[in-house]
Amino acid sequence: MITTKYVRDHIQEIRASLEKRRSNYPIDDLLKLDEQWRASKTELQEMQTKRNKISMEVAKLKKEGKEANEQIKQVADMKDRMQELEKDIDGMQKKIENLLLNMPNVLHESVPYGASDENNVEIRRWGDATKRIDKGHEEILGGMGLIDIERAAKISGARFYFLKGDIALLEHALISFGLDELAKKGYTPIAPPLMMKREYYKSVTALGDFEEQLYKVTDPADVNDIGDYEKMEEDLYMISTAEHPMAAMHSGEVFSAKELPLRYVGISPAFRREAGSHGKDTKGIFRVHQFYKLEQFIFSKPEESWKYYDELLANSEDLVQKLGIPYHVIDICTGDIGVVAAKKNDIEAYMPGQGKYREIVSCSNCTDWQSLRLDIKYDESGERRYVHTLNSTALAISRIIVAITENYYNGDGTITVPKALVPYMHKDVIGKKG
After folding, report:
1. What is the rounded CA–CA span in Å between residue 358 and residue 360?
2. What burial class does residue 307 get, using C-beta atoms within 10 Å of its C-beta: 0-12 exposed, 13-18 middle, 19+ buried?
3. Domains by residue range for the chain, with CATH
């Protein structure tokens, strides 16, 4: 688990990283609180030792038939102070644990400096990003009768959708394509639980910043009045990505060195409240509350994690290239990277209907941020160390559908099926001319 000892042992690099992030994380408050906690803990232990010694004296005096009133009074006088110390220690411990859980990861030295997403750096491009169309995906697919936003809004609210006909088949084709491609590269498919306990969710991401994005599942208020009903053990959270249950899957475990790297590809719906997105991307299926996503995940040795980071990003680029979607890769700057990652790259697909690039992939090396909180280690020659965890979107299905629709729209009421998907779709064109 992450501890204040870990912080003290790495304080210089933590301070340097916080400064680079321009973070207001209260590192000095944490250190001061830890100092107070250790002092109180020492005082309590000393008092417990003294009390035990006096108690032994009392027992001896009573056995000898002697008075022990003075010693008994000493023990009674110590009781209030010890209870006060125990309360203070418990309160400080909870504050320390909360601060540790939300401490930002130490940044990799290559992360570019910047205040916001406007300072992210493009590092390469692929494909022809010159095509422009006068329709967005929502108008194209809506006109073809392949999505239905209005009826979805009627029964579920904003940012939900029905996929119909060939676009529903395209969704499944993309899932099968992505799984097949990554299985060839040694990734084990994982279908995870779609809900997680808070205990684990707070260890895979900075829940203080992220909780408002999650859907929470609770028992009904009148649960005690319901007859044959299996009560929940605790509230659960709908997962926002398969990354999170895959990260927590091996919590508290110790791998053997020969088991690493461990490569997974998760397939699941992702559920997001999209808090803070009011007014953004309100049309179509680009920013929605529910979508399928394939997610790559690797557990690795620390000294190998950057090699596997490059592998994850290359896998994601390979999938997008095989789909023939123009894109660029950007390096996420210090002001936009978030708490968990030590480094992050995004892939943004070119959208001809919008005339700009939009995010479809996020690739992160979380180093030991998650493993420290989930207590995941590996054993090599009797020495136990924390693993590194890495993740990258393989395919965010709804956004890939948007990119395919706008890049492959022919202007005559048809959409060409990318060659890589023809074996899965059993056709090369969606729609009919005219």
Report:
1. 7
2. exposed
3. 4-101 (1.10.287.40), 117-430 (3.30.930.10)
Question: What's the confidence (pLDDT) of residue 74?
Answer: 80
Helix axes 27-63, 69-101, angle to 10 degrees: 160
- Amino acid at the residue 386: Y
262 closest CA partner among 393, 386, 389, 363: 389
Nearest to 302 by CA among 216, 388, 181, 198: 388
Residues facing residue 293 across a β-bridge: 268, 396
Q: How many angstroms from the chain centroid is the CA of residue 271?
A: 13
pLDDT tens digits along 175-224: 999 999 999 999 999 999 999 999 999 999 998 778 899 999 998 876 66
C-alpha 43: how far from its chain's center? 40
The pLDDT, as a whole number, for residue 275 is 67
**Mean pLDDT for the chain overall:** 94
**Are 242 and 192 spatial neighbours (Cβ–Cβ below 8 Å)?**
yes
Residue numbers annotated as active site: 272, 287, 359, 362, 399
